[in-house]
Amino acid sequence: MKVVILAGGLGTRISEETALRPKPMVEIGGKPVLWHIMQIYAAHGLTEFVVCCGYRGYMIKEYFANYFLHNSDITVDLSTNALEVHERHTPPWKVTLIDTGQDTMTGGRLKRVRQFIGDEDFCFTYGDGVGDVDISAAIRYHKSHGKLATVTASQPPGRFGALKIEDDKVLSFKEKPVDESGWINAGFFVLSPKVIDYIADDSTVWEQEPIEQLAQQDNLRVHFHRGFWQPMDTLRDKTNLEALWQDGKAPWKKWD
Hints:
Order of helices and strands: EHEEHEHHEEEHEEHEEEEEHEEH
Largest sheet: 8 strands, mixed
Number of helices: 8
Number of strands: 16
Radius of gyration: 20 Å
Shape: globular
């Protein structure tokens, strides 16, 4: 099963980082968040990726084009221009990097890579969110219900402490509890290629008309994820994710 990753947006809410590089290339622990997402999938045996590039996409292409060189021990003979590889530290991934346009919307980017997906079901997610999502369980569930689309839903932690109040008396206080009022789209979709027929053109936002139509036609199911999930939307998010990684407490790290 292939994995399609959106990596073309501007990332304006974290402009401190994205002024110079695409959002999926912002680093956690010295590695791009895109690399972390790929590792999440690879831990479940999915190693073939299609990356939808856009804003500063050349940086993503350069990263993977030089990945083998940067992660191997080598000897370079400058007199003959010969390169000898001693030990390589590269994963067995196949990465297809496609320019899907500077201003293309999320649905349009997916439509542009249609020819690289094939005729089998595939995974689809955003290039800025990490979590300890059970990808294998999501795929099994998707295959079991027979609908065209499965979305992973998460309940993010609240931004503020919650007070339970009676008159002027505080009955309880919870620091940033999970928002139990609703589930949100966490990405990590499992999809049939037929969903691409719901996308009109470059201006189509995946989360609007296509998803709404799939839901109305009873072709959308949800995989509930009750574990850790965090998008990297702001510099504060990046700082929090970096702290988890540096403390050895990154819940999304399920690989050796």
